[in-house]
Design a protein that fits this description.
The complex is a heterotrimer. Chain A is an alpha+beta fold. Chain A is about 50% helix and about 10% strand. Chain A has 7 helices and 4 strands, in the order ααααβααβββα. Chain A has a 4-stranded mixed beta sheet with strand order 2-1-3-4, covered by helices on one side. Chain B is of the alpha/beta class. In chain B, a hairpin with an 8-residue loop joins strand 8 and strand 9. Chain C contains 15 helices and 23 strands. A 7-stranded mixed beta sheet of chain C has the order 15-14-20-19-18-16-17, sandwiched between helices. A 5-stranded mixed beta sheet of chain C has the order 2-1-5-3-4, with helices on both faces. The chains are: A alpha+beta, B alpha/beta, C alpha+beta. Chains in contact: A-B, A-C, B-C. At the A-B interface, helix 2 and helix 5 of A face strand 3, strand 5, strand 11 and helix 14 of B.
Chain lengths: ~160, ~425, ~525
């Protein structure tokens, strides 16, 4: 049985205070649940549904609409490379090919060590600094295939340091 | 480049802090606004000619005036910071570097609308902005610029940051509201319009970041000063997000009515590597493309761009040089709309995906010339037949690319 | 009442009506998938686009309210082209597996495909979006690839039962409906979603592959499963009932049925049917008899025993007409006063809601009819009183009607065991029943009567609404409808008995029974006529 940590529970209460109606807190709470549990599994949807008194199917359905609410596990570092116009013009396709080559996994697959996964994403509002890549709360801009390997190495070191 | 209402201090260190913002006159507009009657404030915004900078270009003051007074329900102001239109990155810059102009603008708008609870709906991808925005909000609260008594006046306002979680459609205002309410971001049928029944079935105004951030300058300098900039119908300045094949990509604030080619050659630094201009998407991926020769004499304003058969949109300005394959660009665009269709209305759900598949087939060397007419037929069958404009946003590039660059498409066909 | 022009004809709409509703009232069918009269408007399918003068775009008829002077065209070329376009969109990712689809024959994709003359869809099989086939959700099967995403099923669970089991997952052309983790539906109203699905995405597990719908005949009737009296349609063929579907009645059940009612006909398939009258001969062995002989023996024997020692236990599952003649014969003709029908405090339960959708706690269709006929007698006191009267010898003979309930609920009194006890306790018993049971060996006479779906007649529901239940299938053997048995008993007994049909009986009731006074025969058909208190 999964459960929010005490801190997450406090955050949950704080989120509820931001909205005049509980329902409006659903997406922030799902986001919090994802931060706690990694992705929106059936179990997580059931937990949030129970917590907020909505059907689990409803919670799962809502989450499946939003690409940032993951419907399957992703790596600790999930590399999302923009494939849209300006990034595509500047070589996004080659960047994705490089991510795949370096990581040795297909899009949406997680490396055996659980550290990495990659996927395309749509426009990140980083067109002037294309190619853009999002890794969690970070943007990596002016990306090239050459830089891709370096970024991955750096993240690997970062993980080792933690 | 003309007057800089939004970007003047954008590179000034510390400008994103309350102290830095105040150093250059920050929050004097709010102080001034709070002395005014709300209706006078709405009139002032109407007089400025400010139009919605998110893409639709609807007059802001008029939008506000649709909100019923004394409806017995709270009025909500929602800031649309879901910036997701491909080619657009101006709101991100404001959020990053000029957050207090947004907060001040929101406070002014909220006062005009008699709104006491407001949200910034920001796309979740901007996770790196959560902390800075929340910090700016906390600074404003601590300084009494937000809270139970804004600037000591009998006016309460709270603003919260709310994160979207990855859905382009949530930039459409009814979808944004639906999403903010905790549901799948399905656009709503209008009427009722949000001004009458929006967030939690209450009167709601949704304004773009750039629109709201423009308010302090307008209040400080007067509607007339703002209206004096630009053209007769396109007043003021507009942020353009320039990207693609140009030497100096970035966000530029230009007077509306500025010549398009001058913008490319001057602000954007021209086309790199001695290449030639092939095409421009002037207002984000959903507006019709302009061929190089069509750009001649076109001005960057609502009317001139409309006359040229395209739109100002969000000001997502993407430049293509003569190395680019237009069928491939269209495939990228079509993939985007197929990926972002919410799936609610049949024509959009099925049409966006179908068009993308036909284009992949075509650029993959398996297309037939008849596919081009099929694409145009799909466009016809999508256009104007859905709840929201996402299908139309796919139709415009499909139709303009296929008709303007038909020879390029045909060259890829096998039969 | 706003007047508007619909396809060049001036017609009137009810205030607030949408174009699709007003058009329907005037016999103009506007194609649609997502619109459903008893669900909130969603406007997603875009099939009902119509042209309204002064509106630049085509507008959905389901979301647009008629206003005075509006000029609407629902069938010109512009509209047809748009509808054809939508239909084509719906078919590109559809598997077109009609030969193996159970919806064939009542599929709106098929119907509109024919009307709008579409040809083959233009997408190669290899490019279609793949979705799941035949996901078993318990009462219904889900074929996601046939779904048109109209959300009727989702809106049903969201708004009618308020349970939200079915949802959309994903978005764009990958959007699909389903339950979380493909969990089976555990909802007493699940069958409705198969019924309202306009295509073959949700099909009824019970009916699946049983029959092609075009071979079925339909008969309008009323559910026999509880006191709600939901309007339904019996789909049958060659004497077999295949399925029950809801018939819209906004006063009673809107467009819904509960699953217990929907599948209640299977209860009748269980057990052996009584086919011929059985009368015990001199040495106590039951012997097959003709109706005439059986009726005469019953009448003679009852008269011998005498009115004071006769009790009658009717059934709240019998029709108004049968109950009326039951009372005519035993009460008026023979003079018996110990008459009742209750086995489980039905008089109290008849108006008790089981949930806030449809169901009532009383699992009989006609308790209210029996009450209106004053068949609940304080003198006898239901079945328990009847058993006491028999044991104490106050009653020596009994005429007992027993139908096994179509819907059973845990905690319901086992009426059948009590009836068996009653029969055992009586010196002379006449049992009228549809199905064989071992305890009937104790009865002096067993008379085979028609079951639900085998006879015409009316029920009075919990509201006091008199509604017609109809005969869809022909019973076998010498089975007679209950009303006819009592008409025959009255006849052999020497009373006036001129009724040829249950309608004749009702006409008499409408004259003689205060509660039914003034009800016209036709009123009972739909939406039913209210009996007075």
């Amino acid at each position: 049985m999964i459960q929010f940590s005490e801190e997450a529970m406090r955050e949950y209460q704080e989120i509820l205070r931001h909205y005049p109606e509980k329902r409006a807190a659903v997406i922030p709470v799902l986001t919090l649940a994802q931060r706690e549990f990694g992705w929106i599994s059936q179990e997580v949807a059931e937990y949030v549904g129970n917590l907020m008194d909505y059907p689990a199917s409803d919670m799962k359905s809502v989450s499946s609409f939003y690409v940032l609410l993951r419907q399957k596990p992703v790596g600790k570092y999930h590399l999302e490379i923009c494939r849209n116009i300006s990034c595509w013009l500047k070589g996004a396709t080659a960047c994705m090919a490089e991510a795949k080559r370096v990581l040795g996994v297909e899009a949406q697959e997680v490396t055996p060590d659980g550290l990495f996964s990659w996927d395309f994403t749509e426009c990140l509002a980083s067109c002037g600094t294309a190619v853009a890549m999002q890794v969690g709360d970070r943007y990596i801009e002016n990306l090239t295939p050459e830089k891709m390997g370096e970024v991955i190495e750096q993240l690997r070191r970062e993980a080792a340091d933690q | 480049m003309g007057i800089q209402t939004l970007l003047e201090h954008i590179n000034t260190p510390g400008y994103e802090t309350l102290e830095g913002y105040r150093k250059y006159g920050g929050y004097t507009a709010l102080e001034k606004a709070l002395q005014m009657e709300p209706t006078a404030l709405i009139d002032e915004v109407k007089a400025s000619g400010l139009r919605g900078r998110g893409g639709a270009g609807f007059p802001t003051g008029m939008k506000w005036s649709f909100v019923p007074r004394n409806s017995g329900k709270p009025t909500y102001l929602l800031c649309n910071a879901d910036e997701s239109e491909p080619g657009t990155f101006k709101d991100r810059l404001l959020l990053e570097r000029n957050p207090h102009a947004l907060i001040e603008g929101m406070a002014i708008a909220a006062y005009a609308l008699d709104c006491h609870l407001s949200y910034i709906y920001m796309r979740g991808e901007f996770g790196f902005l959560v902390e800075p925005i929340n910090r700016a909000l906390a600074e404003a609260r601590a300084a009494g610029l937000l809270g139970p008594s804004v600037m000591g006046k009998d006016f309460a306002l709270d603003i919260y940051l709310h994160l979207g979680q990855g859905a382009y459609i949530c930039g459409e205002e009814t979808s944004l509201i639906e999403s903010l309410e905790g549901y799948r971001g399905y656009p709503r049928i209008k009427p009722p319009f949000p001004a009458v029944s929006g967030f939690l079935a209450s009167p709601t105004v949704v304004n773009n970041v750039e629109t709201l951030a423009a308010l302090p300058w307008i209040i400080n300098n007067g509607a007339a000063a703002y209206a004096a900039v630009g053209t007769e119908k396109s007043k003021g300045t507009k942020l353009f997000s320039a990207s693609g094949h140009i030497n100096k990509p970035g966000v530029y604030e230009v007077d509306l009515g500025y010549p398009l080619l001058d913008f490319i050659n001057n602000e954007c630094g021209g086309i790199p590597n001695g290449r030639k201009l092939k095409a421009v998407i002037p207002g984000g991926s959903s507006v019709p493309v302009l061929k190089a020769e069509e750009c001649e004499g076109v001005l960057l304003d609502y009317e001139s761009l409309a006359k040229a058969g395209t739109m100002l949109g969000s000001g997502g300005f993407i430049v293509f040089d003569d190395t680019v394959s237009m069928p491939e660009v269209l495939t990228v665009i079509a993939d985007f709309y197929a990926h972002e269709s919410c799936g609610q209305c049949t024509p959009c759900r099925e049409g966006t995906g179908w068009a993308a598949k036909i284009l992949h087939n075509l650029v993959g060397g398996k297309g037939r010339k008849s596919d081009l007419d099929l694409l145009l037929k799909i466009a016809d069958n999508m256009e104007g037949k859905t709840i929201c404009p996402l299908a139309d946003a796919d139709v415009m590039p499909i139709r303009s690319f296929v008709t303007k660059y038909r020879d390029e498409f045909e060259a890829l066909c096998v039969s | 009442m706003p007047k508007f022009i619909l396809n060049d004809q001036e017609v009137e709409a009810q205030p607030g009506q949408t174009i699709i509703q007003a058009a329907q009232d005037h016999g103009v069918e506007i194609p649609h998938y997502c619109y459903h009269a008893d669900l909130p408007i969603d406007g997603n399918c875009r099939m009902c686009l119509v042209e309204v003068e002064k509106m630049p775009k085509l507008t959905p008829a389901c979301t647009t309210v008629v206003s005075e002077g509006m000029v609407v065209r629902s069938a010109n070329e512009r509209v047809k082209t748009a509808v054809r376009g939508v239909l084509e969109f719906l078919l590109i990712n559809h598997p077109v597996d009609c030969p193996v689809c159970d919806q064939a024959g009542e599929c709106r994709l098929q119907d509109y495909y024919m009307v709008y003359g579409l040809h083959t869809s233009e997408i190669p099989q290899s490019l279609k979006v793949r979705k799941s086939k035949a996901v078993d959700l318990g009462p219904v099967m889900l074929d996601q690839e046939r779904c048109v995403e109209c959300s009727r099923c989702i809106r049903f669970f969201e708004n009618v039962t308020k349970t939200g089991e079915l949802q959309f997952f994903g978005r764009g052309d990958h959007v699909r409906i389903g339950t979380i983790g493909n969990q089976p539906l555990d909802n007493p109203y699940s069958g409705n979603v198969a019924e309202i699905c306009p295509v073959g995405a949700l099909t009824d597990h019970d009916f699946r592959f049983k029959a092609r719908v075009w071979f079925l005949h339909s008969t309008d009737s009323v559910c026999g499963g509880c006191s709600t009296g939901c309007n339904m349609r019996i789909d049958h063929r060659d004497g077999t009932v295949f399925r029950l579907q809801a018939r819209r009645n906004v006063e009673v059940n809107r467009s819904w049925l509960c699953d217990e009612g929907r599948y209640s006909f299977h209860e009748l398939e269980k057990g052996e049917r009584l086919l011929y009258p059985l009368v015990k001969n001199g040495n106590g062995a039951p012997a097959q008899a003709t109706w005439d002989a059986a009726a005469r023996s019953v009448d003679v024997r009852l008269k011998e025993i005498g009115a004071n020692a006769i009790l009658g236990l009717a059934s709240p599952s019998a029709t108004n007409e049968a109950l009326f003649l039951f009372k005519q014969y035993l009460g008026e003709q023979l003079g018996a006063t110990l008459l009742d029908f209750r086995t489980d405090s039905e008089d109290r339960r008849v108006t008790e809601e089981e949930d806030d959708v449809l169901r009532h706690r009383d699992k009989h269709p006609n308790t209210m009819g029996a009450l209106k006929l004053n068949l609940a007698s304080a003198e006898l006191g239901g079945i328990d009183g009847a058993i006491r009267a028999a044991r104490e010898g106050r009653a020596r003979a009994g005429v007992i009607i027993y139908f096994k309930p179509l819907v059973r609920r845990e905690g319901d009194v086992d009426a059948e065991a009590k009836i068996a006890e009653l029969v055992r306790s009586l010196e002379y018993s006449v049992v009228l029943a549809s199905h064989h049971a071992d305890w009937q060996q104790q009865a002096s006479v067993v008379l085979p009567v028609a079951a639900w779906s085998e006879e015409d007649g009316s029920y009075t529901n919990y509201q006091g609404r008199v509604q017609l239940a109809a005969k869809a299938t022909e019973p076998g053997g010498d089975i007679l409808p209950l009303w006819e048995v009592f008409a025959m008993l009255l006849h052999v007994s020497g009373a006036e008995s001129r009724w040829m049909t249950p309608d004749d009986v009702f006409a008499t009731m409408a004259e003689r029974v205060e509660a039914f006074q003034g009800i016209q025969l036709e009123q009972r058909r739909w939406p039913g006529a209210l009996a007075t208190a």
